[in-house]
Amino acid sequence: MLVSRKGLSRREFLGGLVLTGAGAILGACAPQAAQQGSGQAPAGDQPRRGGVLNLWVGGDPPSFDAHQESTYQTLHPASPCYNLLVQYDPKDHTKVIPDLAERWDVSSDGKVYTFYLKQGVKFHHGKPFKAEDVKASFERIIWPPNNVVSPRKGVFDAVSGIETPNDYTVRFILKRPNASFLANIAQGWNVIYPKDLLEQGDPKKTVVGTGPFKLKNYTRGVSIELERNPEYHVPGLPYLDGIRFFIVPDPNTGIAAFLSGQLDVYRTENKAEADEVAQRYADKATVKKFTIMSNYAMEMNARRRPWDDPRVRLAASLAIDRTAAVKVLTQGEGVAGGILRPDSQWALPRAELEKLPGYSPNKAQEIEQARRLLAEAGLGSGFKATMLTRKGAQFEAPAVFLKDQLAKIGIDVTLDVQESAAFYDRLNRGEFELFGGSYSAAVDDPDAVFGQSYLCDSERNYSKFCLPQLEDLFIRQSQTMDANQRKQLVWELERLALVNVVKVVMAYRVNWWLWWNRVRNFYRQPSYYLTERHEDVWLAES
Fold first, then answer.
1. pLDDT of residue 5
2. Looking at residue 310, what is its pLDDT?
3. What is the rounded CA–CA span in Å between residue 33 and residue 270?
4. Count of domains in the chain?
5. pLDDT value of residue 392
6. Which of 101, 276, 279, 500 is most buried as measured by Cβ atoms within 10 A of its Cβ?
């Protein structure tokens, strides 16, 4: 449906909350105890139909087009309205399971993937789902038209063509074997749009999928409301009548709304808030900690002076104290890391990471080296710079930290804080000097991380830094099917990217998910960008 401008006012949502922080209302009217644990139903407890799940999002979506955006502020409200070709199991982020494809085959040479589609599925506007919709959606992702930004097209560099032998079969033809192909097909961003919408409509404003919920109302700055799709193709689902996402940029307002029971689920990066909920509501709420697939980071625009000088970029990286970043930005709960998540099977071992510039335990020595590099570049007396960042605590806090760190070597940074839509517009046009905040990936996979951000034409390589040796290594690791051999190539790839620094990785973020135990079948994963459909979530009596 088209975006509506109806809905609750901010005053109606807040309902008189005291906005002086969480501590003022810890005794508020939270839901009564339902169970203790992970949100799973007790043995013998049957799903209950009805009710609206109240969720949180930290800002307005730049648009509703999942193919073009890179923020959870788009994906979380949009995902319940769509299906994927295949998906990650909501209970296991390492396992890919069917969705609109009931099954698939892979050729013996690893270069042909054939998907057999579910029949009897309808889009929200009545069009039957067919293979042409899958083909049109993935062609838009992989070979986008001139007016479409496709941040993840580099992930599918191995694809040479898509065929539709009949209405319910889709065949992807690859130029070379690709160990990560299925994992990346299942990213939550790769929603299936109807072909007619892509040809005649605008997915930025119009939400038409095959998912368990439909867009009902969107009131900018207040809420996004979804309603149950009565013709959903999975029998008996969804259980909920709807989902309401309240748009709450201020963390104090968000935790207050959760503690008062106005939000059923909340995500915080504040350990004290999570500990308070765990202690005071041990029998009423679930608290889960995750080291997520997102890090605090900075990118330098290698197309602009003085950041086109590798000595200046390296100096900036050397100046940043990763250990301090963990302490300041994650209350000591996170971990310093490289390009791939520290507990990933692909991550460079800690001992090897500490040999690379910026990661040495001897920070004083690195600061002196940084000053020498700036002097060699003719900038020994320092210089001024502007750092673009997104509005919101999770983005502004690391930008302030980076400003302080760069000041140690004479780089005087001014922060330029923008709303999400303007921020991404500036990035996509390369109109920035530095940007600081956070960087996330959907899948714990080398192709996903390097393919979307480190190749010469990657859409999320915002500075368009290009290193042919890195491109060659990427292709070699991508088509290496032996996991141990591939890991060695991935480590070599990571070393190369971190030494030729454009993106500075600081600390991997930690989140605590909080939800009242009346919310059943609610599962969380380390990634924000895989399973956000909530089709089998239900609400117990409270």
1. 35
2. 94
3. 24
4. 3
5. 84
6. 101
Quick: pLDDT tens for 16-56.
443 333 333 333 445 543 333 455 556 558 999 999 999 99
State how far the Cα of 389 lies from the Cα of 328, in Å rounded to an integer.
18
Answer positive or negative: Cα dihedral of 394, 465, 530, 472: negative
For the chain, residues with pLDDT lower than 70 are 1-44, 542
Please check whether residues 368 and 468 belong to one and the same domain: yes
Alpha-carbon gap, residue 29 to 259, rounded angstroms: 7
Domain final residue, candidates 151, 176, 206: 206
How much of the chain is helix, strand and coil, in % rounded to 5? 30, 25, 45
Q: Is the same domain home to 58 and 181?
A: no
**Are 352 and 402 in the same domain?**
yes
Domain that holds residue 171: 83-206
Q: CB-based contacts of 264: which residues, under 8 Å, 6+ apart?
A: 53, 54, 55, 515, 516, 518, 519, 539
Q: What is the DSSP letter of 490?
A: H
With contact defined as beta carbons under 8 Å apart, do 182 and 86 qualify? yes
The answer to whether the beta carbons of residues 130 and 136 sit under 8 Å apart is no
Of 423, 354, 369, the residue nearest 391 (C-alpha): 423
Q: Cα(216)–Cα(244) distance, rounded to whole angstroms?
A: 10
What pLDDT shows up at residue 24?
A: 35
Q: Do 5 and 108 lie in a common domain? A: no
The pLDDT score that the predictor gives to residue 542 is 61
DSSP H or E segment with residue 164: strand 159-166
